[in-house]
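Narrative summary of target 7.
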Amino acid sequence: MASHRGWKICATVTGILFITILVVLVVLFLTVLKIKEPDIVARPVNLESYEVVVFPAIKFNVSVGILITVKNRNYGSFKYDNSTALINYRGKVIAVAPLKDGTIPSHKKYNITASMDILADKLLFDSNFLRDLRAGVLNFTSHTTVHGKGSMLKIFHKKATSKTDCNISIIVASQSIDSACTTSINF
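Modeled conformation, tokenized:
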């Protein structure tokens, strides 16, 4: 009889301990380990090459090296697939930058370098381009979608898609760039 009572006490204590651990884990995953948006900053680094052809047709292309800095604020790493960043001017794609696959470690800053080929001849034939150039500000938008898999504590894995949209303004007089980006993650 005493042995049966001991089993009941052991089962009750084990059940309470299991429920307590489960509640603590749920609270941790909903607060501290909650997935946060990464901070993403893109900036040009250097002019890699340019090509100007006047005859037989006007052609002007520029290749710019860009640096994308991603600050992963999460407790898990993010492994992403090959992707492409697009830059648009008034709805027209003027630049494409391939992004190689990689892994962004948890709580780290990660730099992604890419070469972007700007099809500037498309800009020259846009009637708004010269007007914007005279006004002193060129406005561009960029869009990047990255598919990958997040890993939490190397145990839990979840597929995710990160979308980044940036508004980029080039101030012609000071030759400076101002950008504002928004990032969203879908699971």
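The chain has a mean pLDDT of 81.
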